[in-house]
Amino acid sequence: MTAPWTRLFDSELPVIGAPMAGGGSTPALVSAVADAGGFAFLAAGYKTPAAVATELATLHRAGTPFGVNVFVPDPGGISEPEFRRYARELAPEGEPYGLDLANTPLVEDDDHWRDKLDLLLATPVPVVSFTFGLPDPGTVTALRRVGTRVLATVTTVAEALAARDLGVDGIVAQSTEAGGHSGTHDPARPMPPTTVERLVRECAAATGLPVVGAGGIDGAGRVRRLVAEGAAGVLVGTLLLRTDECGTSQPHKDSLADPARTETVLTRVFTGRPARGLRNGFIDRHDASAPLGYPAIHHLTRELRAAAVRANEPDLMHLWAGTGYRQARTGPAADVVSGLVATL
């Protein structure tokens, strides 16, 4: 019988490298996962269209099959008074680095949405996935017309049904165990804990579409269970964060192995959108008062987070990590891929 992951990825193995925006998903990481028999996504988020175009060209020249993940613009926003309140609260955090956070401008943008779509239509890739919401029907049609399979990230069965009705080729079912940003279509919605196995099972039954499992992948046992559930792939992010080819900052890599970092939490303190990361001092100080407001809050804290990386101060960084972070190891990404399929 044909392996279910070949329907979406044409890969030998069910291991799918997750898109990790902010520098994690380098072309080298994408190639390493593909060379090991898996498939991987390049993250278009936070990059200029020119930067994305350069990375696309690098991978196309190498003949690497890969996907691209794109942020769907958030239709919400944040009021100026609420933004200014949080900026004033954070101001003391920035003072040691010469940052005037209290007077940071409120910036809302769409992450170059249209330009990135135009680029992906002009230089097609095998798979494009969307997160933070659903694209319009015309975008799905246009991508499929150029030979691209389209995936939508969902966090509930209701979101999966909306994606099915849009006409996507498959679904990425992301549980609350996942590291980094939640792909929820409604950031204000309460997020009760859910396992990836349950979400894959429910989304597959409700939609009849191929479903990729994402969140909390901590080893071969979990991959085996998801494959047994009929998953059309298993998205792996946190376990790749410490590998040689990943672009994660050194303080982030070190924090994943720090025994003093004892838990991950969902928080919106850094970007105004729910995301899971290692608990640290910044989260402890501001989690109770942090507002929703992506991408304005992301822009507010961006320079502070960059300064913290330069100063090797992880207590001020967004240390994105899923619940399986203790199993993240150093070394080649190929070793992670082979380890995850050892018991299939």
UniProtKB/TrEMBL annotation:
The keyword Oxidoreductase applies. It holds the Pfam family NMO. InterPro entries: Aldolase_TIM, Dihydroorotate_DH_CS, NMO. The keyword Flavoprotein applies. Keywords: Detoxification, Flavoprotein, FMN, Monooxygenase, Oxidoreductase. GO terms for molecular function: monooxygenase activity. Belongs to the nitronate monooxygenase family. NMO class I subfamily. This is Propionate 3-nitronate monooxygenase.
